[in-house]
Amino acid sequence: MQTSSASVVQYIWIATKTFTIDQEHLKLSASATNMASTTVKDADTARVFMQRYGSHFPAGVHTLGGVLFRIVDAESESKKTTTVLAAKAANQLQGQISFGVLAGLGGIGVSISGENNNSSGTVEAHDEKTDDVFYTFSSQAMGPATTNPVTFNKMLANNSTWAIIDRGSPTAYIPIWEMIRNTDPVFEEVAKHLENTWRKDEEERMHRDADTIIEEPTNKVGTREITWHTKRVFQANYKEASRVESPYRSLFHLNPLFAYTRQCNI
């Protein structure tokens, strides 16, 4: 497969605490119940309901902590084999980490010329020695509001910086239509609309994505794993980080602030 762009991401995943929410404590809020009973009449209104309240609730083990992402985008003026371009990007990412650029420590790799923009967390560079590939380095964080690894670790000592970084196994997700059925038998028709609409939309999405090719070779940076994708696929997945993989391809996270009266106080 030939491409002119590729992305590589390294992540540091740090867990600090876990918690669970028992299914028997989950209840639909009055607003969700009212909308289900008065609004959901067909596929279109079912989609509106799920856009507001979600389609599934993650009832498994939730993990708190932080994740630090280091990303390199490689752009080539000519087409190259995807694995070759991704390998070049992985090597550049390893070099940037080794020389401390992504840690905000200054310093740039030997064969790289570029500028470190601390405010945006982005570094642009060009490999003049080998070919026509341009690289853009960036960092993103979930949890502590910093992309400096040392500061990131220190800030995790304060639980106010924690984020939910994992919502457990997809098999522990509860479909919203099951919760509605359990609320009252009169909601059976509503539950059918929600379930049928969600399954139909998922099947259509799978067909749309069928022509997308994802290559996932792995490389090692120190002891941490790097996974690369084509840039087009990486960007699509990165923007939809609120989705989770499941036996049905992907699920939407429910927003418990709107959908449920039961809240988890941490």
Indicate the overall shape.
flat
Number of domains: 2
Any idea what the radius of gyration is? Answer: 22 Å
Bin the strand percentage: 25-35%
The SS-based structural class is alpha+beta
Number of helices: 8
Poorly predicted regions are: 99-121, 213-266
Order of helices and strands: EHHEEHEEEHEEHHEEHEEH
What's the rounded overall pLDDT mean?
69
Distance between the amino and carboxyl termini: 48 Å
What is the number of beta strands? 12
The main sheet comes to: 8 strands, antiparallel
Helix content: 25-40%
Detail the topology: elements first, then pairings.
Layout: E1 2-20, H1 30-38, H2 43-53, E2 56-58, E3 61-81, H3 82-98, E4 112-117, E5 122-127, E6 133-142, H4 149-155, E7 163-166, E8 173-175, H5 176-183, H6 188-209, E9 218-221, E10 224-230, H7 231-239, E11 243-246, E12 249-252, H8 256-259
Antiparallel strand pairs: 1-3, 1-10, 2-8, 3-6, 3-7, 4-5, 5-6, 9-10, 11-12
Helix pairs in contact: 2-6, 5-6
